[in-house]
Structure formats: structure tokens, C-alpha cells
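To: structure desk
From: M.T.
Subject: fold request, one chain
Message: Could you run this one when you get a chance? Sequence is below, nothing fancy, just the single chain.
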Amino acid sequence: MPSAALSGVRVLDLSRVLAAPLAAQMLGDLGAEVIKVERPGAGDEARDYGPPFLKDRDGEPTRDAAFYLSANRNKKSITVDLAKPEGQEIIRALARKSDVVLENFKTGTLAKYGLDYQSLKQVNPRLIYCSVTGFGQTGPLAQKPGYDGVFQAMSGLMSATGHPDGAPGGGPLKIGISMVDILTSHYATSAILSALYHRDVHGGGGQYIDMALLDCGLASLSHYAMNYLVSGVLPPRRGNGGFGGVPSQSFRCADRDIFLVAGNDAQFARFCGAIERPDLCADARFSSTRARIENRDELLLILDKEMVRRTAAEWLDRLDAADVPASPVNNLQDALAHPQVQHRDMLQTVDHPVAGDLHLLRNPIKLSETPIGEATAPPVVGQHTTEILQSLGFDEAKILALRHSRAV
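Reply: Done. C-alpha cells follow.
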């Protein structure tokens, strides 16, 4: 059963690729009905972002990339040509019965079709309309396109990631996944839920939400940005180290890397005991959190030499016994096989109409009274077109005419 948290909320998802579809997926996970609108024939362009591509029951590749599957569970798919008047009328009919519209078209595009917020609020004043764009709806770059990597670079996120200048492999580094897209999806979800609460609890009306990937990338810098705002000094990159207490980073052991954090004085004392170096706690350079941060480089040179003496498993046993937070640096296979991850039930299997059993990550939100249930599989292109049109009152002849005109 789907979650009851957002039961009765209908989301009209006009978006493609990643940031906005992820936000719509989150709302679907929480129980909203999500109707995904795709181009007839082609569908969401993320379907082509492969390999790898999903395989059907016979082991043959389908047209759906894994990239698309990551952002479109718990949705129904209808195909609509927004450039055709008949298609625009379908969108208006859906908007009339929806609570939320999500779109990520280039600024001004949907206004040409009469499907922008100002137009759709005329048919539904209670509509929450969320636009996700690269640079937002205003400003000198509002018309420019952009993708995650561009915003990792422009926001300063890349400058915070990577090894220090002068170190082997030093320099700014893009985060491996599309982190700005993912962060933007969470900001957008929070904004939509806030707008729904304002409307339904405080008696407000609909409203417009302007989300920009650049804004979200910059906001994600959090304490890293605050360090600069307080000091006026550009913070250095720490590589695999953190910006809080020291040590807080990865270390090379005899066989592989581990990551550990001894972020306060008590943890550092236990850590020193675990590595058989109690003298470090007595050293004035390392005897307090502030001193360790100020003398970070000196301490890390000592610890690098200590940690390489034993295997990762040996160190992890010692650190666990000393109650010092630590983990092996896992790859994805390691992470999914971890007993804690398996206990938390972070994988689920759904029935895909073409592939059969399909493994998906599970939403990590765990609600006691409105739990997130089993997902429905990401839909194939236009899978629910007839069903959705019938729900709008379109009869068989009208649907056939729409298909003949390629409006759907």
C-alpha cells in the first residue's frame, strides 16, 4: 500500500531528466498521485541516458536507461505533445484537477503554450506550481541552459572538493554523482510541502515556486561558505578530510582505506588508546580540539605512519572497541551487502511491465504512522495514457482521434 501521508494530492509532473523528476518521485513515495507527462514516442530524454539499459524478461535491452529508472518510481505516464492545441487542452484539464505542477523547461518556454503559472492558475487558483531551472526565473543568466556539472563549478562546490593544490592529483574536483540535481530535488520537495501546508492549513491559495540549481548548489556549501564569510579567507580543500574536529578523514591501512572521526577530546583520547599512542593526548599541539585543528598537518603526518601498520579489519576492530566512529571505504557493492544496510531494508523489488523483477533503492524516510509502502515500477512511455484520459472524461472516439493526430 502507498503511504497515506500525501493521499489525495495529485502532482502533474511535466519535468525531465533528474532534479525535478526526483522531487516528483519523492512526493509519489509519500503517497501523492503523480502523473508524468512525456513526449509522444520519445518520452523523457533520460530514458536514453545509457548504457546501462534495463533488460526485458528475455535478457534483451529495452529503451529505458538505469538513469531514468532512478527518478520515476511511483508515477503514471501519459504522452502529450505540448506544442499541439489538443495537447495543451489535456494539460489544462489535468491542472484543473491537480494540486501541484512540477516543470523544468527553459524559462519562458511554457508561456508560449499557455501552460505557465499565470495561465494555469486561471483554471486552478489553488495550484502549487514549481519551476526548476538552472539559473532561476530572473537575473542576467535566466535564459541560459545548464547541467549539474556547470553548477558544481559555478556555485563553488567543485572548489570545496578534491585534494589541495600542490598535492598529487590536487585541484578542484566534480563530485562523482549529480549532487546539485539531487540537492535541488530535496529543496524543491520541501518548498512544495511548505506551500501545500500554507494552502491547506493556513487557508492560503496556490503559489509559484522558483527553484534554481545555482542557488541550491551555493546553499549546499553551508559551513564551508560560513568559514569564508566569517574569516574572509578562502577555505582550502581537504581531500578526504573534514572541516570539523581532527582527525576526520580517510587513512590508508596496510590493505585498504578506512574513514574515521575522532571529533572531540573524549573520542581523541579513546582513539589514541586504540592506536597505542597515548602520548599524543599529552602533546600540547594535540591536547584540545582547537589545538588539533590548528596543528592538523603535523598530526596527520604522524597518524598516516601509524595507520599503515595494520590492516583495515584490525583497526576497525580496535576502533569499534574504543567507540570511535569508523568505516571501511566501501564501493557500492560493499555498501549494498553491508548487514546494517540490509537490516534497514534499503533495497526493494518491484514488478516492471517489461523486465519483470526490478531492484530499486528504497526511500530512506521511515514514518511510524504513514509508512512508505512498496513502490510501483517506473512506467514505460505512455503506459497510462488511456487510463488518465478516461479519468478526464475522454471517450474512446476522442482518445482515438488524439492518437491519430499524434497529440498523445
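Reply (cont.): The chain has two domains: 10-220+343-404, 248-324. Let me know if you need anything else for the meeting.
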